[in-house]
Write a structure and sequence with these properties.
This protein is mostly helical and 458 residues long. The protein contains 22 helices and 2 strands. The protein is 69% helix and 2% strand. Belongs to the SLC35F solute transporter family.
Length: 458
């Protein structure tokens, strides 16, 4: 995850991000259905407890400090990355003084010469004569920095560019203390987004929750336009049309199932809150960190889990004594399902989703959440045999079209086909008046030229 995408082109990164986001949608739909099963069949409706356990499981990523050598080395040794400087003058850089100071202390080793046995019959002319001044040879080692630069200098041009780019990004990687500080800033925002989502699941159907949570695409478009992190976050009319197309599908799907539950309005409000906090968390994190190599996604989520584990446990007392959520320890089967759901639906999927966001864009990552609509619908039909009207199926089509449109717009950053179409229509509408004015000016110029020529002839 951390090094493979460095060598990818923009198109390859987009395709990889597209596939990663689809995989995340599959995991999220499965997770939402499993959460609903825990709430209903296992009668363990504890949104805060479930969110706290699943979020705390992010600390599993911190085991990398025990088993992952780069993380272990970063705790004791500062990073030392070297890349070629393209503007450096080799004639002025390589001097005799630099060569001497960058070499190690001399080491004297015996000189090995091949021993030849003489039979005594060879003549003096046939023997190879050599002069040996000393039996010891002086050996000096080149410094590691010089050796690395020499290795990079022997690479081809394209290979040297890739190696230099990798070294630059590795050198710009944030230190562990900085990553922990960023995780502390965003951990509460992430927890609120997930907690409101879990409460919404306990109040209404998983399909409706996923549908309304997809409104985060509109929040992401607005926030990313105000606080852009790169050129992909630029506001365009085409993106706005795609988002409204997605919301249209969301409205159709919501209206088709509006009377299923009496508690739907409260669940819908919580779903929208979750969508807003998700968009806020994603946009500002991307503004804080422009590339995934800077932060290390597993390391970031490891600290998020650690801070949530330390800071949020007092809320158990508040929720218990206020009767909002009475504390109750789950059974063994419930705990196994909860841990499985946390591992797949939170620990793995959240890291993949954030990775897919860095590979593509913030808007594409949130619009991809809309793909959970047909997937959840299919899961409800196959697993629970829930009947949906034709309006529900019709509403999924605009959502799919919107996701594909945002994918294309993410590839062509400066392309705005809707604006270009409106501009062409405007020019076509004003074309006639422009032609008439041009002809009037031409006729005046023609008359003046004729007058001037006639005077010269006279």
């Amino acid at each position: 995850m951390e090094n493979d995408d460095l060598m990818l082109t923009k198109t390859q990164r987009l395709v990889l991000g597209f596939l990663v986001l689809i995989l995340v949608d599959v995991i999220w739909v499965s997770s939402s259905e499993l959460t609903k099963y825990i709430y209903n069949n296992e009668t363990f409706e504890k949104p805060f407890f479930c969110t706290y356990i699943k979020t705390s499981m992010f600390t599993l990523y911190l085991l990398g400090f025990l088993f992952w050598p780069p993380w272990k080395d970063s705790c004791s040794n500062p990073p030392n990355y070297i890349y070629l400087e393209n503007d450096l003058d080799d004639d002025n850089y390589i001097t005799e003084a630099n060569c001497i100071t960058n070499l190690s202390n001399p080491v004297y080793v015996p000189v090995k010469t091949p021993d030849r046995e003489h039979s005594g019959t060879e003549s003096d002319d046939s023997t190879v004569r050599s002069v040996r001044f000393n039996k010891l040879a002086e050996v000096r080692h080149m410094s590691e920095s010089e050796a690395t630069e020499a290795l990079l200098a022997r690479l081809s041009y394209q290979a040297s560019l890739r190696a230099s780019e990798m070294a630059k990004r590795a050198a710009s990687r944030l230190p562990i203390a900085r990553v922990a500080k960023i995780a502390l800033i965003f951990c509460l925002l992430w927890f609120v987004a997930n907690y409101t989502y879990q409460v919404a699941l306990s109040e209404t159907e998983a399909g409706i929750v996923n549908v309304l949570s997809s409104a985060s695409s509109l929040f992401t478009l607005v926030l990313a336009s105000i606080f852009p992190s790169n050129a992909n976050d630029r506001f365009t009319l085409s993106k706005l049309v795609a988002v409204f197309l997605s919301i249209t599908g969301i409205i159709l799907v919501s209206c088709s199932d509006l009377t299923l539950e009496s508690k739907l309005p409260f669940g819908a409000v919580l779903s929208l809150f979750s969508a807003f906090f998700y968009a806020t968390y994603l946009v500002f994190l991307r503004r804080k960190v422009d590339h995934e190599e800077k932060i290390g996604i597993p390391l970031f989520f490891g600290f998020v889990g650690l801070f949530n584990l330390i800071l949020l446990w007092p809320l158990f007392f508040f929720l218990h004594f206020s009767k909002l959520e009475v504390f109750e320890w789950p059974s063994r089967e419930q705990m196994m399902l909860l841990l499985l759901n946390g591992l797949l639906g939170t620990v793995i999927s959240e890291a993949l989703w954030l990775w897919g966001c860095f590979l593509t864009s913030s808007l594409m990552a949130t619009v991809a959440m809309s793909l959970t609509i047909p997937m959840t619908m299919l899961a409800d039909v196959l697993l629970k045999e829930v009947p949906y009207p034709i309006l529900f199926y019709t509403g999924t089509l605009p959502v799919l079209i919107a996701f594909l449109a945002v994918t294309v717009l993410s590839h062509y950053e400066n392309w705005d086909p809707v604006f270009d179409l409106l501009q062409c229509a405007y020019h076509s509408f004003c074309k006639k008046s422009r032609i008439i004015r041009f002809k009037e000016v031409s006729s005046e110029q023609t008359e003046a030229l004729i007058g001037i020529n006639s005077e010269h002839e006279a």
